[in-house]
Amino acid sequence: MRYDLDGEAPFKSFGTDAIHAGQEPEKWDSRSVVPLIGLSTTFKQESPGVLRHDKYEYSRGGNPTRECLEECVAKIENGKHALAYASGLAATMSMVEALLENGDHAVTGDDLYGGTNRYFNKVASKHGVEFTMVDVRNPDNVVAAIKPNTKMVWFELMSNPLLRIGDVKTIAEKVHAVNKDIVVCVDNTFLSSYNARPLDLGADVVMHSATKYMNGHSDVVMGLLAMKSDELKKKLMFAQFAIGAVPSAFDCYLVNRGLKTLHVRMQRHGENGLACAKFLESHDRVAGVSYPGLPSHPQHEVFKTIARSCSGMVVFYIKGGLQEAKTFLASLKVFTLAESLGGFESLAEHPAIMTHASVPEDQRKVLGISDTFIRLSVGLEDEADLLADLDQALKAALPTV
Ligand code: P1T
Questions:
Q1: Residue 167: predicted pLDDT
Q2: Boundary of a domain, candidates 227, 259, 291
Q3: Which of 92, 292, 336, 348 has the fewest CB atoms within 10 Å around its CB?
Q4: Atom of ligand 1 minimally distant from the CA of 92
């Protein structure tokens, strides 16, 4: 399914860019078509402090393999710069370190990955940064929470785990109208660069846990930030170097390789995700389904204006209680019971016990992350096998309805 985003001009040549941007064989003496893995931690200088081509001094600050990846990400985000980190949370921490000081304030979405919630409210808050969490489905909630010392707005375009939509365009416009210096950062992990481009919608920074769709093969933990502003890049690059939470050259090589098939993978993730969501919606053992690509999603119309298609993330409530949810998860054969998402393989998990256990119980209750709430990351397997697996596991959990 592809939504019509003004003729899709913003995503023109996505596949070509993902394959070629930053990968010029002329970069290497060997004319290698595939970027080389530069393992050297240090680089010979022409004379003290003088670097050839003015780059590469020590690998924490920059590395040729990382540079290939960062250039490619900048291009597919339609940004100017991108920076890679040792994990999604390392990228998040670097944003906070670069932009916020003791006494500053940030407004965040109230539905966030459990680890992000924990980092903001249990770690960064210890250093004197204040966070206000709001329901970003209504952009006015974000504006109402802004204070004179607000420096950053952070939300997930498609939230983890509830799949709520943050209307980047409206939020960025309204926030910047109040104070153009507030940095609007959008975590686009659940959709990937292929499905939505927050920078084109007015966000200042887009963040990814590249551990998920961007790499797509469940074998690298990495974070990415992309931006258009030179000034922001300078601040973030300083923090990247000063903190040192950088990825290895080998991991950069792998994520760069993953990006080469991102457009192809995301199309199949979207088709399979939609098929599973529709199947669950019509299933008599299911109490409710949420998938922004379905017209039944309360924000489907706004979603279509900011994303060109949906991913493989589907959530639903199983009928019964905790035991039925556990039996369902234990009965799956094609889906694997595990945390994480966005890889080629289908995963299923129980957010209340697993990925979002660190969210305080009362907050989980308000949000609806209950005992019967299940999250699927629908992979690239054959649709019929995925639907049959869901069907048999639902019937194993609830033999009668
Ligand atoms: O795991 P890491 O690469 O550090 O990324 C953290 C992160 C940030 N943002 C979002 C939206 C995420 O989903 C994550 C990580 N999420 C999982 C591990 C998960 O299973 O939801």
A1: 98
A2: 259
A3: 336
A4: 8
